Amino acid sequence: MEEMNKKAPEAAEKQTKAAKPAKKDKKPLGERMGHFFRSYKSEIKKIVWCPWKQVRKNSLVVLALVVACAIAICALDYAFSQAILGLGTLI
Fold this sequence. Notes:
Layout: H1 2-18, H2 29-45, H3 52-90
């Protein structure tokens, strides 16, 4: 009896898989590409761009932070390398 119960759902699954509708006819490639670029253009128009002064200010802040981090990393690298060389002379 249990075997019949196990087979019943499997048979139902096979029937639903076989009963899927046929795929819709695809539109030609040129038409799909045209639709893509039209929707792309309309989405680009919705973007609100920052004013140039704010972009310049933010870029300078990022540049200053990058330079500060680079100097800090160089200083730490130099300090640790000198410490390791100093430990090497102790032995």
